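Morning. Coffee machine broken again, so started the prediction first thing and wrote up yesterday's gels while waiting. Chain of 128 residues, entered below exactly as on the submission form.
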Amino acid sequence: MCKTIIKGRVAEGRKIGRKLGFPTANISIDGGVKLRDGVYAGLAHIDNTRHKAVINVGCNPSVKENGDRRVEVHLLDFDKDIYGLEIEIEFLYYLREECKFPSLEALAEQIGKDKATANRLLDEYTKQ
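Came back before lunch.
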């Protein structure tokens, strides 16, 4: 288990995650963030409320070549507009490396698996 916390403001993205069925909160990060690229399970804190999350850190190679490094947060069981809000992200578990998928369908399938893994790990974590 890793435990890193970052804060940022939610910015509008290209809404590709939403089209795949996994809307994300996009947060730009500076070079000072020392997280390795990949997929994490963690918690997002918005307006003093904690939400389970699947988090991607990286450049999104499946949807854009040479993209900017960013953090994308998919909040589990959450569907509200949070553009412009400050969000605190607590990285708890590293799930896998970021990689390029052959299609958006393959990417969506893997995100579904990541979501299930994150949900299980975070259920156990929040019981502690």
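The domain at 4-127 is CATH 2.40.30.30 (Elongation Factor Tu (Ef-tu); domain 3). Going to sketch it on the whiteboard this afternoon.
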